[in-house]
Amino acid sequence: MGSATGYGGRTLSMNSRAHPWMERLREGLTIGILSTPFLITGLATLQVGFLSNEHAHLIEKALLIRDRGRVEWIGFAYPPLPALMLLIHPSPTTATALASLLGGLLAWSVWKRLEILSFPAWIRAGLLLSAIATPTSLFLATQRLGMICALLLFFWSWRLYLAFTRHGRTDAAFLSALLIGFSFYASFYAPAFAIAFALSTPLFTRLHGIRHGIAILLVMLFPSALSVGAWMYLAWLFTGAPLGFLYEPGSSLLAALRPEEAFLSPAPMGREILERLISTPLYIGTGLLIARRQPRRLPAYLIPLALNLIAWNLGWAFPRELSLSLWILFALSGIPARTPRRWGLPLLLLALLQIPAGWFATRQGEMERWWTVVFEKHSPEMETVEREIATYLRSQTCSSVLTDDRHAYRIIAMAGTACPFILPPDPIFDLAVSQPARFAAYVLVPDTEDGFPTPLETRYRQRPPTGFRLEITWPGWKLYRRVSPDE
Questions:
Q1: Cα separation, 232 vs 227, whole angstroms
Q2: Which residues are 401's β-sheet partners?
Q3: Residue ranges, the chain, pLDDT below 50
Q4: Gyration radius of the chain's alpha carbons
Q5: How far is CA 147 from CA 99, 181, 408, in A?
């Protein structure tokens, strides 16, 4: 009897241990299925030859770290998290695959939130479809590795923040603050969310004196302050510029985003906000629902909209795809858990309207170029030229091509190697700019007045360096070759 009981108990224990593994396997398969539409879309655009600015920037930084063999040069690559993720194999395919996987993980996280609603399964599935099938979501989950990584961390942090404010779970507050702090390594918008969460907390919790309020502020703000301080120290240690990631075009994603936003007056801001709200009708609908059922929570729900307006008034860019995705995520996660079933269908209709309304978001900037590639199935002229230059320079010897990756980062990414190039992080770069004949066999210079004027462009865009002659010209580029003594 004892042995039989022992066998049966062991079997029950094994089954109880096996069940979580089966659950994790099902979740993994679900995430894989949700990632598939993103992966197919991303690979299709890669076959045509499209490469986003952000992926090119991250791939170039990862190639620089890998080929130089110096991980500390991550100080030149902000945000560092997606660049480190690409170190396994810096290539457009890897960037697309990782972005698609994170997109599937984000979709699964949204589904887990929707499961707590009392709506029928088909309505919850339709709400999820509205988040996946918009042009903005497809673009982010295929062409914006850093941004989709930040969105995933923001969403997890937002869910934990709601668990703290709604149910009083102090562990959720700590985890939310830690995730926001960690997300700084994926997006420099993270500290703004930390400040907004901290200032909104008194709206949902009863403070027991000033010490209680200070404690909450410290819990929410300290991880982000620590992350920013740690990165500033690393940037100062390796680049000598602790705030360089904010203003140096070559060390931040300012070089890759190429923002078209430069709103200087209230009228353009108002038009842009109106267009973005039209593209996300569910955000408006959920906001009205919260205002009716839980009015005290409305200020927290409006955090992404407020941050958008504050960023513009400070002269910063707030990319359209980021704000639209945040609004959609806040709308889906902000639907009150006790919303009556009768509200399910109106919310679903508003959510599905986001798919055609999302076309407003594709009319400008890089998204317009991406959407054109998706439909017309041919490589843009810019990609064709850059790929031709990359193919020409890929086979050159190491440290033989002087160029500046603040302009040439796309060419380096398409070349698949940083070995042939002398770049700003290299110790000899400044000397090579002043005396190219001593250090380089080729000098690649942008032939355009757009963008940030680099020292290399300022010196040699109009005339070749001493000892060089014009070798080849491409639209927007000049390549000079060092002349041998017998020529």
A1: 9
A2: 421, 442
A3: 1-18, 250-252, 254-256, 258, 262-263
A4: 25
A5: 9, 15, 22
CB 442 within 8 A of CB 467: no
Instruction: For residue 396, give the nearest of 424, 415, 423 by alpha carbon.
Output: 415
pLDDT tens by residue, 369-426: 888 887 777 777 788 899 999 999 998 999 899 998 888 899 999 999 999 999 888 8
**d(Cα 320, Cα 29) in Å, to the nearest integer?**
31
Sheet containing 468-474: which strands, arranged edge to edge? 421-422, 401-402, 442-446, 477-482, 468-474
The residue type found at 468 is: F
473 beta partners: 478
| Residue 311: Cβ-neighbour burial (10 angstroms; 0-12, 13-18, 19+) | middle
State the Cα angle at 217 between 216 and 219, rounded to 5°.
65
* Other C-beta atoms lying within 10 Å of the C-beta of residue 193: 27
The residue among 326, 278, 321, 291 whose CA lies nearest residue 306 is 326
Cβ-in-10-Å burial (0-12, 13-18, 19+) of 214 comes to exposed
How far is Cα 352 from Cα 62, in angstroms, rounded to an integer?
Answer: 38
473 backbone dihedrals φ, ψ, rounded to 5°? -120, 140
Q: Which pLDDT belongs to residue 8?
A: 39
HEC string for the chain: CHHHHHHHHHHHHHHHHHHHHHHHHHHHHHHHHHHHHHHHHHHHHHHHCCCCHHHHHHHHHHHHHHHHCCHHHHHHCCCHHHHHHHHHCCCHHHHHHHHHHHHHHHHHHHHHHHCCCCCCHHHHHHHHHHHHCCHHHHHHHHHCHHHHHHHHHHHHHHHHHHHHHHHCCHHHHHHHHHHHHHHCCCCCCHHHHHHHHHHHHHHCCCCCCHHHHHHHHHHHHHHHHHHHHHHHHHHHHHHCCCCHHHHCCCCCCHHHHCCCCCCCCHHHHHHHHHHHHHHCHHHHHHHHHHHHHCHHHHHHHCHHHHHHHHHHHCCCCCCHHHHHHHHHHHHHHHCCCCCCHHHHHHHHHHHHHHHHHHHHHHCCHHHHHHHHHHHHCCCCHHHHHHHHHHHHHHCCCCCCEECCHHHHHHHHHHHCCCCCEECCCCCCHHHHHHCHHHHCCEEEEECCCCCCCCHHHHHHCCCCCCCEEEEEEECCEEEEEECCCCC
Verify cis geometry, omega within 30 degrees of 0, for the bond prior to 92.
Answer: no
Rounded CA-CA distance 193/220 in Å is 10
What tokens appear for 382 in the block? 């810019």
Q: Taking the CA of residue 88 as centre, how many other CA atoms within 13 Å lie in the half-sphere pointing to its CB? A: 8
- Check residue 124 and give its pLDDT: 92
Distance (Å, whole) CA 53 – CA 411 = 11
